[in-house]
Amino acid sequence: MTTHATITQTDQARAEQASSGPIQSSAVHGFPRLASKAFVDAWPSAFLAVERASDTESYGSAALSDVIDRSLHASMAHLTGGLSPAAMADAYWDWAVHLASSPGKQMLLAEKAMRKTWRFANYAWRCSLQPNAAPCIEPLPQDKRFSGEAWRRWPYALLYQGFLLNQQWWHNATTGIGGVTKQHENAVEFSSRQLLDMFSPSNFLLTNPEALQRTLETGGVNLVYGLQNFLEDMERRAGGKRPVGADAFVPGKNVAITPGKVIYRNRLIELIQYAPSTETVRPEPVLITPAWIMKYYILDLSPHNSLVRYLTEQGFTVFMISWRNPGAEDRDLTMDAYRRLGVMAALDVISSLMPDRKIHATGYCLGGTLLAIAASAMARDNDERLKSVTLLAAQTDFTEAGELTLFVNESQLNFLEDLMWEHGYLDSKEMAGAFQLLRSNDLVWSYALKSYLMGEREPMTDMMAWNADTTRMPYKMHSEYLRMLFLNNDLAEGRLHANGGAVALNDIHAPIFAVGTERDHVAPWRSVYKIHLLVDVEITFLLTSGGHNVGIVSEPAKKRGGYRFTSRVDGEHYADPDEWVKIATVKEGSWWPEWSAWLAAHSGSPVAPPPMGQALCDAPGTYVLQS
User: Fold this and answer.
1) In 3-state terms, what secondary structure has residue 149?
2) Is 211 exposed, middle or buried (0-12, 13-18, 19+ CB in 10 A)?
3) Of 24, 237, 617, 621, which is most buried with the most CB atoms under 10 A?
4) Measured at the alpha carbon of residue 111, what is the angle toward residues 118 and 140, in degrees to the nearest 5?
5) pLDDT at residue 267 tops 70
């Protein structure tokens, strides 16, 4: 029998013999070790080095993949006008799946199709017996495509009536389907309407009786002129030129000519101080913050319709911010940079020029939203320089921000950010295209009809020329603006930060004058009206006729249009928009005198005009001339 001592001696001898070779035993388990101790000790360090190298390679791969994806999306965006195919596919898929699983809705649509077919057949029969038969469907009030008498004749009456019935059916087919998200429903309805409008009988020569009549009268000359107009427009767009006739309106020559001086300039703004036109002025100056999405001189067009000139004639000292047109080097400018270098920088200059005087701050459109942010941060920080706040067609709550929100979702914003990433800004062409899409009948199809089928050039006006003088939007700022305001509604819900802290609109305690316009596609008046829910101060709300621009540029000399308004003092109960319309005071004419009287009531007694600041150049300055 082998003893324990014998086994131990044998194992020890084998171990000593093995120690002279390359194979070593494990100190723990007695298993053979196939590598030297030095190699084993070095293995963790080697593994970490390989891991670090692998990580470095993965970072490079991630950066490369990001560049590939962004470049592809940017290229696609140029073809789609900035609309995300994924976002549209998502919306249509949501609609199609829920419609496919709704047999009741399908049955209702089939019934509507049968009824409309019967209505159309009955109308066609009546037209054959009575040429001026009453139509079976009326266009919407804002639809002027078929208002001409020529559309009442056969067969054109049948064409436009059939088109309207088809358009109405598609509206029923794209709305009212249970389970479809509201944004998807709105996007599908909107895009389907845009597609249908492309095939309107008014857009084609053979189906448009007015265009055919014009062709017969001119012997086809209108089509020759139309082709010339089309080629000229394409050449100008390809060369980045302004539309025909716009060159006749040049800032500093026949628009934006109210006398003034540029008294301050930084990388983002020029500050204009306008010369007084009265012997005495109100002690509180007016600072206007326009939207940087367009040039400032919408508020200083021709002398007869210049809001700036009107204010100076009413005895106010007026300052205007003129925004610089950003380039690729400004890609990282943020929303807060616009607040600091824009509104706050202008206030500091005015305060140094006119110390101990409070300021009437005014903001238009996007500039009004920025002013609301700045005013909230100032009130939070006990900065009492604002005498009043005026918001012109400016939103502070974006839950009902109109048709611009149809395509504001994560997919669309990511796609748009990739488009801006390519150049560092959103190009003015994409911006102009988005606004034209919202009013395609007015800005696209009616223009094409008049210019290309009728062969007529619509006379250029100062506002049309200004509308063509577009600007760019910095990548970082525009991304933040869309995400923080349109997507997340951070301002109204208290999540937006400025100057190191959160801002809340209810911190504002200066009185507010807010203006909405009835036919606003950019800032719907019901959305502007939400300011009543966000502040607890005196609010005068005024609703004027017109759209986003025409409603604001409301010269008193033209006795057209009108407005309604109310003033809410602290403690009064809230009235919703429908109730407000019923109780508001109605007046005819321009709203400018109403605002001027309100400013005067919140100002001190007239004094001598303040000194002009040190002039850098004459108004309108240099930034407004940048293309």
Assistant:
1) helix
2) buried
3) 621
4) 70
5) yes
Q: How far is CA 89 from CA 92, 188, 265, 412, in A?
A: 5, 10, 46, 11
Helices (H), 330-442: 335-338, 345-353, 366-380, 410-423, 428-438, 440
Residue 127 among the catalytic residues: no
* Residue given tokens 């316009």 in the structure block: 517
Contact (CB, 8 A) for 309 and 317 = no
Residues listed for the chain: 627
> Which residues have C-beta within 8 Å of that of residue 409, sequence separation ≥ 6?
87, 183, 487
- The residues pairing with 264 across neighbouring beta strands, listed in sequence order, are 271
Give the number of other Cβ atoms within 10 Å of residue 97's Cβ: 13
Q: Which tens digit of pLDDT belongs to each residue from 386-415?
A: 999 999 999 999 998 877 787 788 888 887
384 class by beta-carbon count within 10 Å (0-12 exposed, 13-18 middle, 19+ buried) = exposed
User: Is the pLDDT confidence value at 151 over 60?
Assistant: yes
Q: Global pTM? A: 0.85
Angle between helix 156-174 and helix 182-198 axes, rounded to 10 deg? 160
Measured CA to CA, the distance from residue 450 to residue 458 in angstroms comes to 8
Average pLDDT score over the chain:
87
CA of 588: how far to CAs of 461, 541, 558, 593, in Å? 24, 16, 11, 11
Q: How far is CA 509 from the centre of its chain?
A: 28
Nearest to 77 by CA among 416, 426, 409: 416
The β-bridge partners of 288 are 320, 362
Strand pairing report for 501-502 and 497-498: antiparallel
538 neighbors 598 (Cβ within 8 angstroms)? no
CA distances 298 to 257, 363, 433, 558, Å, are: 12, 13, 19, 17
- Integer Cα distance of 150 and 161 in angstroms: 13
Tokens linked to 36: 């030297």
The pLDDT of 605-627, averaged and rounded, is 95
Cβ contact 535:508 at 8 Å: yes
Judge whether 271 and 352 are in contact, CB under 8 Å: no
Separation between Cα atoms, residue 246 and residue 468, nearest integer Å: 8
Report DSSP letters for 75-109, one per residue: HHHHHHTT--HHHHHHHHHHHHHHHHT-HHHHHHH
In 3D space, the residue among 395, 396, 392, 394 whose CA is nearest the CA of residue 594 turns out to be: 392
Residue 20: the pLDDT is 43
Q: 285 φ, ψ to 5°?
A: -75, 165
8-state DSSP, 56: H
Please name which of 552, 541, 194 lies closest in space to residue 365, comparing C-alpha atoms.
Answer: 552
Using pLDDT thresholds of 50, 70 and 90, give the confidence band for residue 321: very high
616: three-class secondary structure by DSSP: coil
Strand partners, 544: 517, 563
Q: What percent of the chain has pLDDT over 90?
A: 64
